[in-house]
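Quick one: co-fold with 2-acetamido-2-deoxy-beta-D-glucopyranose.
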Amino acid sequence: MNVRTSRLIFLLLAALTSATPPGNSTGQRFVVVFPENIAYYYPTSSQNKVWVTALHNATQVTVASQTQTLNSGQTSSFNTDVELKKLDVPGSQMNPPYEAFSVSNDTVQVTSNKNIIVQAFSMRKLSIQTALVIPTDKLGTKYFIPPVPQILGTTDGPVTPNVTERGPFRVIIVNSQQQNTVTFKGQGETSVTLQSNQVAQIWVPNDTTKQVVVSQFPVAVLFSHPCAMKYGCTCGLLTAALPPARDRSVKFPVPMLLAQNASVLQSDNRSSSVVPLNLNSTLVESSGTVVLYRPGLLLTLIPETEFASCFLVPSMQSNNGFIIIVVNKNSTSGIHIGTSQLQNPMWQELDGTDYISTNLSVTSDTTVVWHESSTMAVYFVANQSNLWFGNPAAVISSTPDFRGCAVTAEVVEVQSSAYSWTESIGSCKNETLELISLSDGRFQSQICTKLRQDSPQDVWIGVRRSSMTGDWYWLNNNPFTNTNWADGEPGGVEEGQCAVMSLNNNCGWRDEDCCKAIRPVCYQGPELLKLS
Ligand SMILES: *[C@@H]1O[C@H](CO)[C@@H](O)[C@H](O)[C@H]1NC(C)=O
Ligand SMILES: *[C@@H]1O[C@H](CO)[C@@H](O)[C@H](O)[C@H]1NC(C)=O
Ligand SMILES: *[C@@H]1O[C@H](CO)[C@@H](O)[C@H](O)[C@H]1NC(C)=O
Ligand SMILES: *[C@@H]1O[C@H](CO)[C@@H](O)[C@H](O)[C@H]1NC(C)=O
Ligand SMILES: *[C@@H]1O[C@H](CO)[C@@H](O)[C@H](O)[C@H]1NC(C)=O
Ligand SMILES: *[C@@H]1O[C@H](CO)[C@@H](O)[C@H](O)[C@H]1NC(C)=O
Ligand SMILES: *[C@@H]1O[C@H](CO)[C@@H](O)[C@H](O)[C@H]1NC(C)=O
Ligand SMILES: *[C@@H]1O[C@H](CO)[C@@H](O)[C@H](O)[C@H]1NC(C)=O
Ligand SMILES: *[C@@H]1O[C@H](CO)[C@@H](O)[C@H](O)[C@H]1NC(C)=O
Ligand SMILES: *[C@@H]1O[C@H](CO)[C@@H](O)[C@H](O)[C@H]1NC(C)=O
Ligand SMILES: CC(=O)N[C@H]1CO[C@H](CO)[C@@H](O)[C@@H]1O
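Sure, here it is.
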């Protein structure tokens, strides 16, 4: 069997044995919109910004017509004056649902030559909202629209589309590159054809029927109200980017910090309902949209299946910002904020779940939150003069690495054919990989955790005994200090000059005859994000 075939089979096996790897928020093409903030006629102008974070050196980024080159870990803020216009008010004889789409070209295109993260920041006077922008290749074609929350002074009485602060919520649909047909289905059904990079808005009726947006090609969908947060005699924008419908039911742990006075706006293929949060059981299950609502905040929740290991948290431009972390109770150690380890935070149990959560104050610049060995959920929220904003933090990587935040994951591959130890070096090289050297204890356990999911067997590792001195050497020349010999190992020189790792025996090592045909473990290290 040639190498390419064997690698393909390995990848297929890997796909069968582990669940689909969760995604990340990185990509090379994005379409950004800025929902109408407060009201188009409000006398203060908006400051709309696109934040771009590069993950690799020499990343060329173009936002609208501005181009910049960024290095790994660098964030740049691009100003734009693009903002969605007010929504058409339908003719007086039209009763709810106000069934007309209003279409515009008011989008900002972002492209780059390497994977980046894009976030949108909109501020008008005190009204601030942020949004994580999903790259166009990770969007969906079906979105469940959440039910409308009851907000004092906004939606708790008669809504009229011609009075902004008493207007209905709206759904904003952002098209990507090709011509696309989009349909809003509720009690009725309304369709529109969008050209590339166009955006469509439509009012959301307060309706207990299931409401869904479906499209021919992928789109992004936002749920938004320009004037839903009340303060003094003005108001603030409330917006949330919705997740595409999932093909199975998943569980969403709700962080305690936000659970007070909160309700969950839930909609899937069975129902659509506003559920007050039960603090005894802070786990919500759904295959659709789950958005946390509390006065002043709409927050799309992260399901267990989309927990990840490294998140980007933007500079919050507020001295009252929090990072919220939700993690399994047994995985609280090994969390880092940038370059420092998280020290004994106050954990709060999420009753009725295996999770705990904490909130950390931050005032700093853009940073990353990463876990050495496990996955978690990370949100950021900020409270500015009692107005909240925030969203799930952007995912850089979903695979934990004890060395930091991997922007390209490490490659660990047990080859499907067996070779002698010396042939194994060449066989790995043929795939531009190296026979693995396990000179670090934490590295050994990370690799062991990954490989144990495969069938139990012995595999070659890159260590060899000198026939002159009897000392062991790693192929990568690192010192031979941390060892993981199985009980009674290694034996004498006559038992072999090379070593295997037993995946069915806690990854313990054993000396072995170098000529024996055994499957090698080939390796390539990750590329790590530069942390400052
Ligand atoms: C990126 O550039 C910085 C500074 O120029 C350098 O220190 C770093 O090693 C580079 N990173 C990679 C992955 O090449
Ligand atoms: C708002 O629209 C309704 C019909 O939908 C109309 O009766 C009313 O006069 C309008 N109000 C204003 C202030 O324009
Ligand atoms: C959008 O732009 C196209 C040209 O690029 C123009 O023909 C069209 O009228 C514009 N549509 C709107 C709604 O502004
Ligand atoms: C939606 O309508 C229902 C009944 O028609 C009503 O009880 C509820 O308060 C309304 N919700 C909002 C947000 O207006
Ligand atoms: C709803 O979606 C779930 C998950 O995709 C699926 O198992 C179930 O059959 C669906 N139910 C209906 C009524 O379509
Ligand atoms: C929760 O709501 C009650 C009554 O509406 C209010 O008195 C209380 O301050 C609220 N608590 C928080 C944390 O917002
Ligand atoms: C939560 O638990 C407490 C005591 O354990 C109980 O009194 C209360 O009714 C429960 N609340 C709900 C909403 O189940
Ligand atoms: C932590 O708990 C989860 C289930 O709650 C389990 O799957 C996982 O193996 C545990 N991890 C450790 C390190 O014990
Ligand atoms: C929000 O921040 C203000 C100060 O800006 C503070 O007085 C208030 O207590 C905070 N609100 C909450 C709910 O933490
Ligand atoms: C992020 O997702 C892309 C696929 O869109 C993938 O190519 C890339 O390897 C992922 N990044 C990491 C660090 O896993
Ligand atoms: C803003 C906020 O709610 N902060 C909380 C963070 O967590 C600690 C410990 O649970 C609370 O005491 C703070 O009130």
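If it helps, The domain at 410-528 is CATH 3.10.100.10 (Mannose-Binding Protein A; Chain A).
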